[in-house]
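Contributing: when you submit paired examples, paste them exactly as shown. First protein:
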Amino acid sequence: MAAVPFMNPEEIYAGNTREKKRKGQHEIVADLVIAGAGMGGCACAFGALRNGLSVVMTEETDWIGGQLTQQGVPFDEHQWIETHGATRLYRDFRTALRQYYKRNYPLTESAASREYLNPGDGAVSRLCVEPRAGVAVLTDMLAPYISAGKLTLLINTKVKNAEVDGNRVRALEVQNKISGESFFLKAPYFADATETGELLPLTETEYSVGTESKKETGELHAPEVGDPDNQQAFTLCFAMDYRPGENHVIDKPDSYDFWRSFIPPLTPPWPGHLIDLTYSSPGTLNQKTLGFRPDGEKTGDVMNLWNYRKIINRHNFTPGFYKGDITLVNWPQNDYMLGKLVNVSEKEFEKHVAGARQLNLSLLYWLQTEVERPDGGAGWPGICLRGDVMGTDDGMAKYPYIREGNRIKALFTVLEEHVGVENRTLVKGKAAAARAESFYDSIGVGSYHLDLHFTTKGTNYLDLSSLPFQIPLGALIPQRMENLLPACKNIGTTHITNGCYRLHPVEWNIGEVVGVLAFYASKNNVSPREVREKSQLLSDFQKLIRSQGIETQWPE
């Protein structure tokens, strides 16, 4: 399905959205402005729209869906996701994705009969789907609100500036990246659902970024010295399939010799070259070797990387419909550590994305020409880039997967001792550490290990066991700003706890709650801070979100 078209501000007069002139430029007014239409942004829109608010949502690319779509990252989820541990709407979205395949694709009888169909059968998730499927389903879910004029969706639109008056944001100035036209968005509430938390510096909202020191947080695995520039590597994902008997070998990339010989300068050390099947196992940092066969066959007792994030398993479809499987590459071998993308100039951003593209092409070329085959040969020339899968000309994702951005300085900060097994045991004792910290102001739940990739300043993986956790409302409320709320992975976490609060279902939960919170605060003429600090308001709000399918605690 094609992306939602850009809506020219001169054509928007529907529903509760109002438009007027400001100094020769258009001004669009709504109840809530959301910057970023990723998982958190879309969920935020749904939370607000179903409660009657009008919404304007911007998106820097032409695809909504963030991690799942424009960035090409299949769902990262916990083991109980099919029945609990996420919002009802999130599970409805997953069900709609399965129905999309059952309705539109020539599935085998066996695949079509599966309640929990996984089109790709990727090892990373119980539901691995094509990015385009995510765009299509989210677009369908938003379509009624767009038709009724309740939602104004502005794709290819980026926030350029913010108007701030004291502790309140008054307006955002945005620009369409294609037409160059600038205009203003105004609302009582603003939600930052951008991938980098870019509204925080623009609005002068207090925030953290990078690593905090052990002295700052008391966390067991925090470094002795914090560094805002020490951030997790980002990944520019790409899609490829395998066509036996064909030759799709690309020209040797310009930077191939550099990347082929590159050894990540990490502490503890990386075991060899980045482009290789041997790497540091995240949990132990011991040397680990993976397998690779694009025909999907087993590679002994080690994981076949091809199957890790596979989004089309040809065997789920009628024989001959697919020549081969389709997989997404978000592997240790294409994590880019030579620069950061947060709080940098547009030129610097583009420079490092271009560097990541060269890394990807180098990895692809190595897979096509050099990687060892089971028969003793080298390379799989039938591997082919699939730009159509990613909606791009070159097969790369539309936007890089940025694991951590700016995080608000919140009323409450989630620390490693609240969710991490080892740190919690040290602080609370073994018996008390059987469960994560219980938050009186819980507005959601999640579960994932503390998963931190190697960093721009040379820290190797940090992968720690964690407990099924809650999301505290206090982590969603800035210390000072009154009408700006985080709606994705930019909540009050640390560098370490970001590692389990940044995944798809948690980001969705955060965004959905923020949409409902904007409604509840507006309806009752109270601030988000008051909702948390006044027990009756908090109780009423928690009752409201639970009635709308948002879980606030894990079952016993």
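Second protein:
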Amino acid sequence: MRRFSLTVLLVAICLLPVGIGSGTSAHSHAVAALDGALTNTASAQAQVLEDYFARARSIDLLTANNPAFQDFYQLPGSRAAKIRRGGRVLDKTNQALGYLEELFPDSIGEACFIDRAGPEIARMVRGVRATPADLSPDESGAPFFAPTFALAHKQVYQARPYVSPDTKEWVISNSTLMPTADGSKQAIVHFEITIESFRRVAASLTNRFDIVVVDARTGQVVLDSRQPQQIGAPLGSPDDHRFQPVTKAGRATGSGSVDDRPLAYQHLEKQSHNANDWYVVAAARTPVGPLYGVSGWSVVLVVVALALLVFAAVSFLAQHRLLVASSMTDALTGIPNRRQLKADLDQELKQASRDRPLLLMLFDLNGFKGYNDTFGHPAGDALLIRLAKALEQAMTDHGGCAYRLGGDEFCVLAAVDPDATTPIVAAASQALSEHGGGFSITASYGAILLPQESQEVVEAMRLVDQRMYTQKTSKRRSPDRQSRDVLLRALEERNLELAERHTAVARLAEAIGERMGLVDGDRAQLRQAAELHDIGKLAIPEELLHKPGPLGAEEWAFVRRHPLIGERIIGAAPALAAAAKLVRSTHERFDGSGYPDGLAGQQIPLGARIIAVCDAFTAMTFPRTYAPQLTVPQAIAELRNCAGSQFDPAIVDAIANLVIGLVWPPQRSAVSESKLDRAPGRARAEAGSTQP
């Protein structure tokens, strides 16, 4: 019987750690993966909405700058008479409104051009132009009307959801003032986006979770990804108050649960003149219980092991103590494991203080799966051992302790000076990095200070795990990239060939900037300005761009405004303010005879001087309809002829050295130059300029 009891005990000892370990690990990883996926989904959907608001503001400003709106007010007669008479100006006004539907396909409710007195001048509803009889005589009571006219120029008002009187759908409007020469507020350009289009985007983002947008002021559900917004129905789900705790907490990001379903949320970044204050919530569709992610065989093993332990309780207790003692060390690497970490946290947290806090860091290796797939699991195990020993040595040098939590996850715990955490963070990151032929291993990490940020072990582990996953999965675009992409898209829609040539100009300009010692930030601004330096041409009417024969003096005076227009368009995005200043000066000449400010020599910003030379070189060496395409040596010779008068000689020398042996131009479609590139009386090196 004793031998039988011992056999039962041995079987139970084998089964219980396997069952509990595999179940606990599977549950922990499943919950962690779920939390990370929820956080990532909420962040991604919030980014989509923030991108929409930013894009809508930029496009509304670009649309309002269309000369057709201002030209309407230059026509003789009353507003009603001009509308009845119609004509090219009104046609172009409606075309500008209709173009918005191409930028927001299946999303636009309507687009309008509205006078200061309240009546509509033009309106497009899903590609259909409103007749004079259909135009509203008074929009002054609309929710967007008064707030928009209260704005300064170059600002956009984005209204809270309302029911569109024309489409009967719930919409969000974007409205801005029509630019005027004297700064007066004559009219607004306005378009609506349907709430249902937002819901469709949210529903398409993921089929795993529910996406809910909640009003931060009221806690009301604005949209639910699984409930289409019906015409005539109330907005969202007015009776759903489950997410009010999210809004009351007042935190930018976080996680929680509703009806035992985990959720993550993110507060949209507040934007000027946007009346919407929203939270995006990503929620699991099913409750998550204690057995979430645990396989059936793990449950069976635990049940069998517990039954056997009841039969041999005394023997189990003795063997259990031995198992606990050995379970504090990671079997593969020999460093402390998760169990030891939790024990140390319990002990050290009691002694930690704000003057001498504990630094807790969680690491996850980047590139380890690829290393395993390429070199095999034995090599992967050897790599883990090397990294663990390096981390252990680094922490010994800095008075800390290293742990392996399992897989490719490591942890660090150290008592630190709260103002001197950088060295230990750098040492740990360096220790968990290894590079060689065909592989590169780095580590993502999350870090917290205890007890400042948490006084509970479980909460501390959850928080540091969340920060690590946030760093690992974050892919948000910077504001300057978002704004630049919107403007480049607008330029491509208007003139694809011009946009392609600007890409080549930007490549050359960035290379010359590097040769001339510009730092990374200045080179980035230089590239942005080079890509967008002719964005002001979007404001030049098509009939002027393609006019046969030479342009008159007044026409040239008009087209010379495009650097100033470009500066205003780009400057509407704060992240591109530095690039906007460069764009203003790209048509200045080294001898002071350029425009718009008549700057000379070093008064012209270096970036603008670089762009001018690169633009001329690219224009001469790309195919063009009005003059022969030059070879690289011919173009360099032309630049040297104009050095000192039109161009900075130092930059001409720099581009001459750069393009020696260069295959140019790059492969691209044929370029058809506009009338702006055919100024009379200019050196061929000025190709791309608008000055006569």
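If you have annotations for the second protein, write them as plain sentences, like these:
The first helix runs from residue 2 to 64.
The CA atoms of residues 219 and 244 lie 5 Å apart.
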